[in-house]
UniProtKB/TrEMBL annotation:
<protein>
    <submittedName>
        <fullName>Protein furry-like protein</fullName>
    </submittedName>
</protein>
<dbReference type="GO" id="GO:0031175">
    <property type="term" value="P:neuron projection development"/>
</dbReference>
<dbReference type="InterPro" id="IPR039867">
    <property type="entry name" value="Furry/Tao3/Mor2"/>
</dbReference>
<dbReference type="InterPro" id="IPR025614">
    <property type="entry name" value="Cell_morpho_N"/>
</dbReference>
<dbReference type="Pfam" id="PF14222">
    <property type="entry name" value="MOR2-PAG1_N"/>
</dbReference>
<dbReference type="GO" id="GO:0005938">
    <property type="term" value="C:cell cortex"/>
</dbReference>
<feature type="domain" description="Cell morphogenesis protein N-terminal">
    <location>
        <begin position="150"/>
        <end position="371"/>
    </location>
</feature>
<dbReference type="GO" id="GO:0000902">
    <property type="term" value="P:cell morphogenesis"/>
</dbReference>
<dbReference type="GO" id="GO:0030427">
    <property type="term" value="C:site of polarized growth"/>
</dbReference>
Length: 371
């Protein structure tokens, strides 16, 4: 029995041991908390993945504890964004590298970690409702506790998004896996839904930061699963457009539109380019139809976000019919709106972008308006 215990202990990385590398150098092995055991009697690939995840869980908990010790008003990006922690950035890069070989199992493990964190936006609402029945002093205490709980959830979301963004960059070499794609889409689009009351309180800025991170997730996902993202976005937009006009509906549509701001047009192959601008034409049709000023301005901002990278690299693509049609659909209407003071500031950047991606004859015919 004693020999079995010794063997088990030597096979786990919960103590500091040394091993000899193939070229003769002795290297001390990574140490982890006693609750994390890594069996070395597994295949090399599985061992690497387990070691990475063990390190990830340790670093994630450390970073979560760090942000919980800060004041509630401090933006999470100040502590968690890329470039703030060289060790964690290196870990993210490692996840991106191994994802090329084991992306499905890596994503499933990440999802399992995320689910175990117990992130649930409805939980904080339940706490607040329960606090309403208490006296004023207790209400203040409960509210602060709720905000702290919410801050932890947001920190988990932040870390989760950073890893997912790195991993999804390898999704193009892993066709299929619709279940994993649907999981990510469901999670991301849930964060694009406008929640009344979420824009107040000490965590308001962090809620917006997380929504932007999920928008970045969707942007990376769309590079390899564009049709799936497009279908989901249009379905969500159709549902919102079917609702009665109201300030809540307007804010919800704008939040959804902002969820696509990291979408980037793929210049090659030409089929991908055409598919992207067919999607842009669908959005342009909505832009022409919608009467709400705020939604129109949000759409214009979204078009600019997407068109600026295109304008920086476009050459012969200006002759592709779908891009030509898109420019012609929007230019005259947008230029007319720019003459109105309430639209000029928001829509003028779109006018310039449309000219930058237009054909030469169209540009020469219309640029004089800027004189």
């Amino acid at each position: 029995m004693a020999s079995n215990e010794a063997r088990t202990q030597s096979n786990c990385y919960n103590i500091s041991t040394q091993s000899q590398l193939p070229w003769g150098v002795r290297k001390e092995r990574q140490t982890f908390p006693s609750g994390i055991n890594i069996d070395i009697e597994v295949k090399p690939g599985e061992f690497i993945l387990r070691t990475l995840f063990a390190e990830f869980t340790v670093q994630a908990e450390r970073k979560i504890d760090l942000v919980l010790a800060e004041v509630l008003e401090r933006p999470l990006s100040k502590s968690l964004q890329r470039g703030e922690d060289a060790l964690f950035d290196q870990l993210l890069s490692a996840f991106g590298s191994v994802a090329e070989h084991c992306l499905p199992s890596l994503l499933r493990t990440l999802f399992a970690w995320y689910d175990r964190q117990g992130v649930d936006s409805s939980l904080s609402q339940e706490h607040r409702l329960r606090a309403d029945s208490k006296n004023k002093n207790d209400l203040q205490e409960k509210t602060e506790k709720d905000y702290l709980h919410e801050r932890r959830d947001l920190a988990v979301e932040f870390i989760f998004c950073l890893v997912i963004i790195e991993v999804l960059k390898q999704l193009s070499v892993h066709p299929g896996h619709d279940d994993l794609v649907n999981y990510i889409e469901n999670l991301a689009f849930k964060h694009f839904r406008f929640r009344e009351g979420a824009q107040t309180g000490p965590n308001a800025q962090n809620v917006n930061i997380i929504a932007d991170l999920y928008a970045e997730v969707i942007g990376v996902l769309a590079q390899s699963r564009f049709q799936s993202v497009r279908k989901r976005f249009m379905a969500e937009l159709k549902e919102l457009r079917s609702k009665e006009p109201s300030p809540i509906t307007t804010h919800s549509i704008i939040s959804l539109l902002m969820g696509m701001k990291f979408f980037r047009v793929k210049m090659v192959p030409i089929e991908e380019f055409e598919a992207s601008f067919q999607f842009m034409q669908e959005c342009a049709t909505y832009f022409l139809e919608v009467k709400d000023k705020d939604i129109k301005h949000a759409l214009a901002g979204l078009f600019v976000e997407i068109l600026v990278p295109v304008a920086a690299t476009v050459k012969n693509e200006v002759n592709v019919p779908c891009l030509k049609t898109f420019v012609e659909m929007l230019y005259s209407h947008t230029l007319d709106l720019c003459t109105k003071k309430k639209h000029s500031l928001a829509l003028f950047p779109l006018v310039t972008c449309l000219l930058c991606v237009s054909q030469k004859p169209f540009f020469l015919q219309n640029w004089h308006y800027f004189l």
